[in-house]
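Researcher: Let's do a round of design. I'm pasting the structure tokens now; please hold your answer until I've finished.
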């Protein structure tokens, strides 16, 4: 990787700080570095003349990969920008959890150097798509249909390949990819799904009927959400961004996209390492030497 673009969360001071530091590391490694105008004012003075400043829409022409600084939301934003050109994304986490933005800023220079020198693995992640008003929208994590600014529940008729799954009376409903299974769906008691699994999951949000449970289906199925009761108002959200409002009688069709997101991952780690580290699986309280003595 000899040409690298940097994409930072402009609302986080820590993201800006480490993004500027990353630009300095890249220049010192002899790598062509591209940044957005939003970051250029924070660059160390001695590297300003060595860094190209362009809008994100030009990244695909000027770089071979993108490094994002923020959290999973920042990486998702970068993924939407880079989706059509399939540019690999390396995510540094300066947020709280970070399942997608896996790299640590505590070893910034080491991690960047390893990737620049080819020490990484590249993974493809599936993407969902839908059309709203003749415009195509994508989601790496999930599409969500949920109530808006009201205490009233909504009713959604769900179909999988035109077969009726059921009427979901709930606060909303999530259609998640395996990548998104650790996001909103997980907080709604959805299952954790290994990214390599070729499935989708339909997860109700606070359903009125306790027997309505998350349902895993093949990712070859097209899913339809048909709104039969909009309650006090309904929105459709793609990866945390509202894309449209719906009324009673409206519906959306969602399917697996042919597009893919390419993520750069450490060579020596796996998805299960992330689960253990992030969710503290198999943590042994007896190993905590600071715990109170009996």
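Researcher: That's everything. Go ahead.
Model: Designed sequence:
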């Amino acid at each position: 990787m000899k040409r690298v673009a940097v994409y930072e969360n402009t609302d986080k001071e820590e993201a800006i700080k480490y993004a500027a530091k990353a630009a300095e590391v890249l220049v010192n490694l002899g790598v062509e570095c591209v940044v957005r105008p939003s970051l250029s004012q924070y660059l160390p003075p001695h590297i300003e003349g060595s860094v190209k400043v362009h809008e994100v829409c030009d990244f695909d022409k000027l770089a071979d990969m993108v490094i994002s600084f923020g959290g999973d939301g920042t990486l998702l934003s970068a993924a939407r920008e880079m989706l059509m050109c399939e540019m690999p994304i390396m995510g540094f986490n300066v947020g709280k959890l970070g399942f997608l933005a896996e790299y640590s800023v505590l070893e910034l220079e080491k991690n960047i150097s390893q990737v620049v020198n080819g020490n990484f693995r590249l993974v493809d992640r599936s993407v969902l798509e839908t059309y709203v008003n003749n415009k195509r929208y994508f989601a790496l994590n999930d599409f969500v249909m949920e109530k808006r600014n009201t205490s009233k529940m909504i009713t959604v008729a769900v179909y999988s390949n035109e077969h009726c799954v059921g009427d979901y009376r709930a606060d909303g409903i999530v259609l998640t990819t395996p990548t998104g299974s650790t996001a909103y769906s997980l907080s709604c008691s959805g299952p954790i799904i290994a990214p390599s699994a070729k499935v989708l999951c339909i997860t109700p949000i606070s359903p009125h009927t306790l027997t309505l449970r998350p349902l895993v289906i093949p990712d070859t199925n097209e899913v339809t959400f048909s709104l039969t009761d909009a309650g006090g108002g309904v929105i459709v959200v793609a990866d945390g961004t509202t894309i449209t409002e719906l009324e009673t009688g409206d519906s959306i069709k969602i399917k697996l996209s042919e597009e893919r997101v390419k993520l750069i991952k450490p060579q020596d780690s796996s998805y299960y390492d992330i689960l253990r580290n992030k969710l503290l699986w198999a943590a042994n309280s007896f190993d905590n030497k600071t715990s109170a003595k009996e």
